[in-house]
Amino acid sequence: MSKNILVVEDDTMIASGLVYVFEQEGYTVFHCKTVNEATNAIASKKFDLAILDMQMPDGTGFDVRKKLIDTSVIFLTVVDDEASIVKAFEDGADDYVTKPFRIRELLARVKRTLAANTDNAKSALTIGGITMDTSRPYNRN
What we know:
Elements (H helix, E strand, L loop, with lengths): L3 E5 L3 H13 L3 E5 L2 H10 L4 E4 L2 E2 L2 E2 H7 L4 E6 L4 H9 L4 E4 L4 H18 L3 E4 L2 E4 L8
Parallel strand pairs: 1-2, 1-3, 3-6, 6-7
Antiparallel strand pairs: 4-5, 8-9
Helix pairs in contact: 2-3
């Protein structure tokens, strides 16, 4: 079964390269150029992984991250200050990669993240309409 990857990237050259590489690996890829486009995609589709640029024309990767539920997140951005990186991990990001990046390394991180979260799904307990994932840290937000 193909995994759905959301790529939120306003640079069309980077985005087209990512889409091509991920599709060659058998993933189904959805590309959005803005936070608004990503919000609409999230409302209509379930994603297994989101790759988020931090700086978008109409907001930030953090804005998109807030809208994702039960989706792994890798930030892919030029923003390399410690405060942003720490905030991303505190907000539940699975990984943080700074640009420029090596595509094979990013692909390895994507595969690792998807595999880890597939394994973690086994530790989720659903009772009624409530799902509790005992493998992820508690987030008060």
